[in-house]
Amino acid sequence: MRKFSVFAVAREALRGHKGWEPQWVSPEPRKEYDVIIVGGGGHGLGAAYYLAKEHGITNVAVIEKGWLGGGNTGRNTTIIRSNYLYDESMDIYEHSLKLWEGLSQELNYNVMYSPRGVMMLSHNIHDRQSFKRHIHANRLHGIDNEWLTPEQAKDFCPPLDISATARYPINGAALQRRGGTARHDAVAWGYARAASDRGVHIIQNCEVKGIRRGPNGEVTGVETSRGFIGAKKIAVSASGHNSVIMSMADVRVPLHSVPLQALVSEPMKPIFPCVVMSNTVHAYISQSDKGELVIGAGTDQYNSYSQTGGLQIITHTLDAICELFPMFRRVKMMRQWGGITDNTPDRSAIQGVTPVPNLFVNCGWGTGGFKATPGSAHLFAHLIAKGEPHKLASGLTLDRFRTGRLIDEAAAAAVAH
Amino acid sequence: MSGANRIAGQGRLTPARTARFTFDGKSYEALEGDTVASALLANGVHLVGRSFKYHRPRGIVSAGPEEPNALIDVARDAARRQPNVRATVQEVFDGMKVTSQNRWPSLTFDVGGLNNLMSPFFAAGFYYKTFMWPKAAWEKVYEPVIRRAAGLGTAPTEEDPDHYANRYATCDVLVVGAGVAGLSAALAAAATGARVILCDEQPEVGGALHYDRSVTVDGKEGFVWAQEAAAKLAAMENVTVLSRTTAFGYYNHNFVGLVERVTDHVARPDRKAPRERLWQVRAKRVILATGAIERHMVFGNNDRPGIMLASAARTYLNHFGVAVGKKVAIYTANDSAYEAAFDLKRAGVQIAAIIDSRSKPGDAVLNEARSHGIEVLPGHSVVDTKGHRRVSSITVVRNGGGGKRSIAVDALLTSAGWTPSVHLFSQSRGKVAYNAETGQFLPGTYAQDCLSVGACNGTNGLQATIEEALAAGELMARATGNDGGEKVELRGENAFEWTGGMAGAAEGAGADTNVKAFIDFQNDVCAKDIRLAVREGMHSIEHIKRFTTNGMATDQGKLSNLHGLAIAAETLGREIPKVGLTTFRAPYTPVTFGTIINHSRGDLFDPARKTPMHAWEEAHGALFEDVGNWKRAWYYPRAGETMQEAVDRECRTVRAVAGVFDASTLGKIEVVGPDAAEFLNLMYTNAWDTLKPGRCRYGIMLREDGFVYDDGVVGRIAEDRFHVTTTTGGAPRVMNHMEDYLQTEFPHLKVWLTSTTEQWAVIAVQGPKAREIIAPLVEGIDISNEAFPHMSVREGKICGVPTRLFRMSFTGEAGYEVNVPADYGQAVWEAIWARAETLGACAYGTETMHVLRAEKGYIIVGQDTDGTVTPFDAGLAWAVSKKKTDFVGIRGLKRPDLVKEGRKQLVGLRTKDPKLVLEEGAQIVADPNQPMPMKMLGHVTSAYWSENCGHSIAFALVEGGHSRTGQTLYVPMPDRTVAVEVTDMVFIDKEGARLNG
């Protein structure tokens, strides 16, 4: 792999950039692989990279129905943070955040991780109780998260309206300074390039149609739109369609899939310095390096695989954004879209073994999977290589829904009494 | 004449009606009806903006919404300012201030223009390859610089004083676009009697008829016919014609979003009128007549000011009366651009040459050009241009080499052909199909009840368009059950049939070259950038788009997408349809946030719910807290009191005398029917069939997974009638939860549910003197302790109005909750208050309520529980029936992890320092000196100063808490560690004597 650097760019500039090579190669599939990863998003590509790099397993194919990073990796609002409540969540998201901090250098690909701070607004007593609970838990776990007064919140994010006459006045905020954003496409491409460099096969436009099983029920390969491909192990990480893929091996996973919408404004000069989220008024917003306001909206009220959504969801979100930032009412929406999120009953992910031998699953990241990408990929690679979870991911088992040992992050942000 | 380039006798504007505006501080004169673009061109201003990345000088490219370059900042006053407005669609009004964007210090001298010199370095995706060293510099140096350089306009900084409106509408047929096709379709549909909405983004109908003067319909000039047709439609009762109205989004089930610009073109708008109006239209059928957009030619330095689309130049001449140059050349790959030369020539403009990249232009236009004496160069191409702030010359070569010459021009008009506007069709989830013959993506498979007609359907020729549109209009209208009227017939003629067109790089900008041949002007994407993306392995069109940012600018690729696709296909050696289009997403053109939210702001953002006693509480000095949508009285400070002092006083008074509390926000559900008790047996953990009429019981409701969902007191009014109460925040979801089970799991039960939350005002009277307060006011109920013990309910009268009187308590004191119809709430409250005040009682708010209930060990679901707590964890095992064989959550409760040792359980805490109040949310550990990450045992759910106890009190969820009574645990805070003792949860009156007093 040719190293990316300012010198390489300068050299190429002198000869019209004719010397660049493909960032990843797309060979014809082999007859069989040691590991097939289903799903070419950040989690799947990252897992392939770490399998090759840390476990020496390079006879690996990543199989993608469409184009790399075309699912939720390329559709999300790129928020990164680790200030979750439960140990299991803090472990995995903090592991991820630490990997984010060095990811550009690790991959030799600028993923533009930008720790501009993620600020969550508190609007009432219940928010404050919940945020303080997070802040104290984070502090004792070694994760940064601090309480701000309304004035401090406004200092950190000047466009914020902290007036007492707001419909839901702000009584404080929780700020994780190391939180921020990254460039989503670059994450997929960077992992693909680095994995490809280590011998991983990246196979796009290849839809998995079935999972073939051996005499003992173990997986033996996948039926695809490009024919059968054998595999000793299969790892599924196909967000939005995980329950569809898993059902091919007769495994029912407790997921429901709903479209989540997002939108961007027209690009503008820097106006918004950080990420702001509000659970009470249902909004989150940041500004991309290109200048667009990136705004996350809600989910449709019903299950669906449609990567679009109703106008009313966007309306509700912009209501909230304009309530928090009244000067944005004259800003224009440039593009809206949707992506399918797989949600578990406790809103925490599933990563673990399945009842089917040699079939592994990484799913259920809900609306927050992007931030987990490097951590999830790293731990998923461990699971695939060793056949058992890394201790940081040991709580994310599929079995927990049977036993009741839930990691209920949604409940922890419980509704007002 | 307003502007030196306005030509007398040309255009449709009235010379006498002028307006003045400023551009970058300089004043210009315009005519009413001008766009900013036409007015600037009339005044000879071509340089209007700078590009995103290279800051290259840019001019006006188009005369419509596809404009990539001429983005301006438009201000009426300081607060009424909008960035990134297309100069080509913004109408001029007198007094408007227009400012150019993305330049510093000025448009003509822009320091950012240095980027252009660095452009070999700034190839597509270069930022993924660099800015990685040193690691810290990305955040501190590189990114801030990139952010400042990027962006276009400046965001508004003041709150927008304008207001916006919303209309919901339904119709039989919605026709989008009012050119020849849309008008014809609307005429045919309207004639059947169908309810028709016709919308068009321009101020006047006509579409292409704005510029195409060689067209007649029914013997009239096309544009004149169009105005008459629109007037006829507007006069019909069953038709709504909306101008300045863009259909921006096509959603599910023929739901189409329109935005109508109401006042942005008016100098002094009526302040009562909205600035823009959102139309949310549900149409039985939709007809898309959205036309086509002309593409530019892709060649070296094709981006200089003065280089524009041929049809745009015709619009400026034929509609606005403006000549875009004095010596104009045309560079085309298709016949339509010739007509621009004919129109300009007739208006007296010198045509330098028509350069046609095809060796065989259409005979008709070729002959016409020669009859005008215009030099035509078939089989030639423009390969370069010169000119800094405006094009000054072009370099022409013969295709394949030779014949190089330079031609001096002050404008160059280009046309590579027409791209059908399939945006809305595609948004509707319809699938496009590629027509290899015309090189166009056209509507293929429809997903919703709509039809495309005219240019957006690839239909060529005027009469063919009219016939297709008339047929579609009638067909769609009849499909909605309208069968009146006579067949509409129209006859159209046009001078020339148009053929030709190309996509991708033209001669001299091919794969072997390194010229800057722009395809996406705004984002500075050149043909070579697409090739670079392919070289780097980006083989999906979505990857190419994202890697190069082609089509991601504010015009969303209206000009550039097909060019990008064609170059990618050529580079990949694949056919165009095999590479495929990127997804079309709403909105068609950007939509103001304010329009989307319209009325939903301030008080209407989220309506505040107020109880019937709210006004009294406000008048008596209450401060309020938000609980869900409700405004609840929080505490009643007297003059000079702090919050703590007020709450302490209220707490003391309630226990010593009595207090009056507004409990109206509690959720209330009337559960009625012969199976009501059986239903409640299934919904709650405890038994309800054993509850006698006239008695109440505290109930716990679980989710399927066994965790506490809600709680409340339920009174049995009669054998078949229960008065259920829920938490304030839980009211709607408990109602849904019950309905859900009733309809899906227990449909055999005869039970009816009615939400009565807002029908009852609830006045809690609590304390030793509670009975004395209400006794004189109550009629028909014996409220003596014997006849009306704790946990009873009676119907009767209070203050002469009907009441459901509950004997119950959330304070630990003897008390009543007086339910009266909401309309009587304030009057009864005042009557009770008059008695209470005389006897020395106080009004108290939610904060005191919280303290009093905590003193007594009562939990609040949602604060002391969080969706992970079983009734056993919460110490409510007594409320879970051991006899019942079924209730919601019974199986969930039996899961291994819900019954194992060491679960987090609710306990009381006392701080070793009695004065110290814990922080709610603080974490609890056994060993405060352990290293990070610490093993956390649980957290503080509630914590208060208890004036009545004389020490602080708290509840906490603690691992194995029920077996830790007496243990010392620690709460590590940032500045100190607090030692606490685990206790039970009842801090006063453990025997419950006061309840029965």
Automatic annotation (TrEMBL), chain A:
Reported cofactor(s): FAD; FMN
Subcellular location: Cytoplasm
InterPro entries hit by this protein: FAD-dep_OxRdtase, FAD/NAD-bd_sf, Rhodanese-like_dom, SoxB
Catalysed reactions, as listed in the record: sarcosine + (6S)-5,6,7,8-tetrahydrofolate + O2 = (6R)-5,10-methylene-5,6,7,8-tetrahydrofolate + glycine + H2O2; sarcosine + O2 + H2O = formaldehyde + glycine + H2O2
Domain of life of the source: Bacteria
Family matches, as PANTHER family: FAD-DEPENDENT OXIDOREDUCTASE DOMAIN-CONTAINING PROTEIN 1 (PTHR13847:SF287), SARCOSINE DEHYDROGENASE-RELATED (PTHR13847)
Name the UniProt record assigns to this protein: Sarcosine oxidase subunit beta
Species lineage: Bacteria, Pseudomonadati, Pseudomonadota, Alphaproteobacteria, Hyphomicrobiales
UniProtKB/TrEMBL annotation, chain B:
SUPFAM superfamilies: Aminomethyltransferase beta-barrel domain, FAD/NAD(P)-binding domain, Folate-binding domain
InterPro entries with a match to the protein in the record: 2Fe-2S-bd_N, BFD-like_2Fe2S-bd_dom_sf, FAD/NAD-bd_sf, FAD/NAD-binding_dom, GcvT/YgfZ/DmdA, GcvT/YgfZ_C, GcvT_C, GCVT_N
Residues annotated as domain FAD/NAD(P)-binding: 172-431
Sorted UniProt keywords: Oxidoreductase
Domain Aminomethyltransferase C-terminal: 904-989
GCVT N-terminal domain: residues covered: 613-884
Gene3D superfamilies: 2Fe-2S iron-sulphur cluster binding domain, sarcosine oxidase, alpha subunit, N-terminal domain (3.10.20.440), BFD-like [2Fe-2S]-binding domain (1.10.10.1100), FAD/NAD(P)-binding domain (3.50.50.60), Probable tRNA modification gtpase trme, domain 1 (3.30.1360.120)
Residue ranges of every copy of the SoxA A3 domain listed in the record: 516-596
Similarity field: Belongs to the GcvT family.
Name recorded for this polypeptide: Sarcosine oxidase subunit alpha
Species this protein is from: Mycoplana rhizolycopersici
